Amino acid sequence: MSIISKIEAQNLKLPPSWMSRVTSRGGAMRNANEIKKILGEPIPKLADPKAVPPKVMAMFASGGLLERLRKKLARIARRKGGKILPAHNTIASVDEEDNLYVGVEFLEQFGDDEELIAGILAHEWGHMKSDLPRGVDWSHLKWDELHAMRREEEAGADGFAGRALFLMGYNPDAMMKFLKMLDRESKRKNENKTEKLPCHKYHNTATRLAILKAAWIAQKQANADAKLIFEQNNNPTGAKVGRVIGDG
Question: In whole angstroms, what is the distance from residue 203 CA to residue 128 CA?
């Protein structure tokens, strides 16, 4: 079964955002810096609000872009999330308390692209939706198992993001374009040997793009089918309305 089919078959049930949880705690895994570098990052450094450009800081304010997107995602996911905080050297990440850290540098460069920011936040909300127990020590797992766990985590978050983007009224195009850009930058760094350790936390970019697109299409179809069922159930004449689900 392909990873895309697996995501759909599981109805986008999300595995744990385990790295942020493990590295936020004590114990052996907390001190394993090589694990952080290969599979995930520690909690990013908070930005001083006074040093953040006013245009960016306005996005964090009540009524700002990030808070407006939070409301949409909270309705969709039925999970409010914690604080949304400005941070450095990150695109976005979520901690064990569902606090969301959004990169100041990222917003400076892409703050005008609402569709992209919606996709980034939706991906992080996907991590919040994890239903496996928190505080588990994963240090007994082998490297291949750790890599596989993280890839499943990220694939689930991508799947949630694709569906959430449709429900919020956005296309996945900006998110897909951004992932392609990150892939080009990663390949360039590898060619220049500026990255000392490989990153196995994600499936390859082609797979991630396919997951996003497939999830968006699946949600679009689900909404269309739900609308058709509603129309058929509320048609007093009993006449056929549109196509029958499953036809064609």
Answer: 20
| Distance (Å, whole) CA 116 – CA 101 | 16
How far is the C-alpha of 233 from the C-alpha of 240, rounded, in Å?
A: 10
Please give the Cα distance from 77 to 42 (Å, whole number): 25
156 domain-assigned: yes
Percentage of the chain lying above the pLDDT 70 cut: 68
What is residue 202's predicted lDDT score, i.e. its pLDDT?
64
Q: Residue 25 belongs to what domain range?
A: 3-233
What pTM, to 2 d.p., does this model score? 0.74
Q: Give the containing element (helix H, strand E) for 86.
A: strand 84-87
Q: Is residue 199 included in any domain, yes or no?
A: yes
Quick one: which of 96, 84, 103 has its CA closest to 182?
A: 103
Beta-carbon contacts of residue 55 (< 8 Å; ≥ 6 apart): 111
Contacts 24+ apart (CB under 8 A), 60-68: 60/84, 60/85, 60/86, 60/102, 65/111, 65/114, 65/117, 66/102, 66/117, 66/121
Q: How many domains does the chain fold into?
A: 1
